[in-house]
Write a structure and sequence with these properties.
The complex is a heterodimer of chains A (about 350) and B (about 290).
Chain A lengths: L2 H25 L8 E8 L5 E8 L2 E8 L3 E2 L1 E4 L5 E8 L5 E9 L4 E9 L4 E3 L7 E7 L5 E11 L8 E11 L5 E3 L9 E5 L5 E8 L2 E8 L5 E4 L12 E6 L5 E10 L5 E9 L5 E3 L6 E7 L5 E7 L9 E7 L5 E3 L2 E2 L8
Parallel strand pairs in A: 4-26
Antiparallel strand pairs in A: 1-2, 2-3, 3-5, 6-7, 7-8, 8-9, 10-11, 11-12, 12-13, 14-15, 15-16, 16-17, 18-19, 19-20, 20-21, 22-23, 23-24, 24-25
Chain B lengths: L2 H10 L6 H24 L4 H12 L2 H12 L3 H27 L4 H19 L1 H4 L3 H21 L5 H29 L10 H32 L11 H19 L1 H25 L1
Helix pairs in contact in B: 1-2, 1-4, 2-3, 5-6, 5-9, 6-8, 8-9, 9-10, 10-11, 10-12, 11-12
Classes of the chains: A mainly beta (about 350), B mainly alpha (about 290).
Chain lengths: ~350, ~290
């Protein structure tokens, strides 16, 4: 072979190899699934840390980050295909209850887990066929209340599959015994919270097309329906993610504050006085405020803002806001890379 | 061109030599072939038969060229092929790994990797042309070495072990590239070294000058990293890698000088290196 032919053959071969690699590389399917921050967060009892879920290609890992922002630390990482969501701190900050969620071809699973920060272990205290969606510790730290649905399906053809037939349960953290507190088989129940005196439970449910807040006495099952009054932009009462203030006198929740030019609801945080049931708009992000939570000792809140509410995937970020909503500051979070050690 | 001249050219295609050296080899080979041809003609063969017989006796041009190359520049071509192929192989493995397991493949990176690897292999294939300018061959090798050095800082392995393996691979590759540079400089300068100069001192001259080059490249890349980190992507960032180019240009003059005055060349090389770094840095500061 002449020198010229050698050169031509070599260069052609390399160009061909490059093209094959380029095309093959571009065809390599990127993993699917949501990547970004989860909606639900909790603040540690000493107000020093936030616990949150961060999704990577659909799988969520639990992280903590200083409440003012900084480098996130992995709390618990699930195996591939599973997600850890809806974290909640225990009153002493030693335990974090959360939901482990995964799916098989046959069905979906949503189980309650407890992470012990001292032993760095995840424990499964109950095993149920139902779908545990969230949990809240009692103020004395002895009990864990949780919501469990019996079915996961779509009752209506216009909605996707969701958990239904909810009830509230209580687990004694010492003995591990679980008891059912309600017998409602509710269509929906969410945002379970316990009043600071430990005597009542707060949760969100609905009545027809209206959302309702419910305060339920733990001892005598007395129920008080709360219908916040306020300047809402929706005809029916739409609200989500209610959370109690540390003194138990106020509730912050997400409500419809306005409509944009396309008629899409703009959700902001509202603060309601529990006694008067009068709610006032707290935030003016003009985005979708998905979740709000009070600090324990300071007069501040942390809210989750979704900047892509109408899009396919959420674009959540966390913000500290003052009690009057006047000041807000983003919580910058640095998620460590895969191979970065803590 | 006669058939014997063509035969000689084919031999020379396989050998690395400077223009003057090449002319001497050409003349010597032709002289030898002509003598043999004359001998054959004296033995009763026609001119055509005599030429044919001479070339048959002389042997395959490719094989002779290869043997001459190996005698004058032992393992030089093999080393070039090894460095070039290893560079391309790294590109292939790293790109496939990045595309399929990390979903972070960068085609431009692969293109640069292939170009730097192919340039070294092409230099090996065209050794007769590239070898005439041994400075050019060193530039091709040094570009490859610098790029693979940058690659060490860019490794994103799926696990710490993968990162370590990639790093070891690249370090060996960089080392092979540097050996090729020193070897090329050493053998290419062999003819100009006088008897008074020890080959060891010349080798030291090449080694130290190369080390200075690595330091210049390292400092430049550090400045580039710091610039990009603090100021962001700007055209003026290119000034931070200007020392590498300045050093490469001065290295051309150094190379001729090293063979003649190896010890003094270390001092001038140091001076050039300092100059290569300070001038762009001063310009950057003044900007």
């Amino acid at each position: 072979m002449s020198l010229k032919m050698k050169n031509i053959s070599f260069i052609s071969g390399m160009v061909l190899l490059f093209c094959i690699l380029w095309i093959t590389g571009s065809l390599a399917k990127a993993p699917e699934g949501f990547t970004g921050y989860g909606q639900d967060i909790d603040i540690s009892p000493d107000d020093s840390e936030l616990v949150f879920s961060h999704f990577r290609y659909g799988d969520a890992t639990l992280y903590t980050v200083p409440v003012g922002g900084g480098k996130a630390k992995i709390v618990a990482e699930p195996e591939e295909g599973k997600s850890y969501i809806n974290p909640a701190f225990s009153p002493d900050g030693e335990l974090i209850a959360f939901i482990e969620k995964w799916e098989t071809e046959e069905r979906r699973y949503s189980q309650l887990r407890i992470f012990n920060r001292e032993s760095q272990t995840v424990k499964q205290r109950i095993n149920t066929n139902g779908y545990v969606t969230e949990a809240a510790f009692s103020p004395d730290g002895r009990s864990l209340y949780f919501l469990k649905a019996d079915v996961f399906k779509n009752y209506s053809s216009i909605t996707g599959k969701r958990p239904h037939e909810f009830d509230i349960f209580r687990m004694d953290l010492t003995s591990g015994e679980t008891e059912q507190l309600t017998d409602k088989n509710a269509y929906t129940m969410s945002s379970l919270d316990v009043t600071p005196d430990g005597k009542k439970l707060l949760y969100r449910t609905n009545e027809g097309s209206d959302d309702r807040l419910v305060l339920r006495s733990i001892d005598n099952s007395h129920v008080k329906m709360i219908v916040p009054m306020g300047d809402f932009a929706s005809n029916s009462l739409i609200m989500s993610s209610p959370a109690l203030s540390p003194d138990g006198e106020k509730i912050v929740f997400t409500g419809v504050a306005a409509k944009d030019e396309n008629g899409t609801f703009i959700y902001e945080a509202f603060k309601m006085d529990l006694e008067t049931e009068q709610a006032e708009q707290l935030t003016t992000f003009h985005e979708h405020v998905a979740n709000s939570i009070f600090f324990h000792n300071e007069d501040k809140l942390v809210v989750t803002v979704d900047k892509n509410f109408t899009g396919a995937d959420a674009d959540n970020s966390y913000w500290q806001i003052s009690a009057d909503g006047e000041e807000h500051k983003r919580v910058p979070i640095d998620i460590p890379e895969d191979n970065e050690t803590e | 061109m006669t058939r014997m001249e063509q035969h000689v050219e084919k031999i020379l295609e396989q050998t690395q030599s400077s223009g003057k050296e090449r002319e001497e080899i050409r003349e010597e080979l032709l002289h030898h072939l002509n003598e043999a041809k004359q001998q054959n003609m004296n033995n009763g063969l026609t001119e055509k038969q005599a030429e044919k017989q001479v070339m048959a006796d002389f042997g395959n041009a490719g094989d002779i060229g290869y043997q001459m190359q190996e005698a004058m520049y032992p393992y030089q071509r093999g080393l070039l092929y090894a460095v070039g192929l290893a560079t391309i192989l790294y590109g292939l493995i790293y790109y496939v790994n990045a595309a399929f397991f990390q979903h972070d493949a960068i085609p431009i990176w692969l293109a640069v990797q292939f170009v730097t690897g192919c340039m070294v292999i092409l230099a090996g294939i065209n050794i007769s042309f590239v070898g005439r300018y041994f400075y050019m061959l060193n530039v091709v090798l040094l570009v490859n070495v610098i790029w693979n050095g940058i690659n060490i800082t860019l490794i994103k392995g799926a696990s710490p072990w993968q990162t370590i393996l990639f790093s070891i691979y690249l370090l060996i590759l960089v080392l092979l590239g540097l050996i090729a540079v020193v070897q090329n400089s050493y053998y290419s300068s062999g003819k100009t070294v006088t008897k008074q100069q020890s080959r060891g001192v010349v080798l030291l001259g090449y080694g130290v000058n190369l080390l200075l080059g690595i330091i210049v490249a390292g400092v430049s890349l550090f400045f580039l990293w710091a610039f990009l980190f603090t100021t962001g992507k700007q055209l003026s960032a290119l000034l931070t890698i200007a020392p590498i180019f300045i050093w490469l240009i001065t290295y051309k003059f150094q190379m001729g000088y090293i063979a003649k005055k190896p010890l003094i060349s270390i001092l001038t090389g140091f001076g050039f290196s300092v100059l290569a770094i300070t001038v762009p840095v001063l310009i950057l500061v003044m900007l």
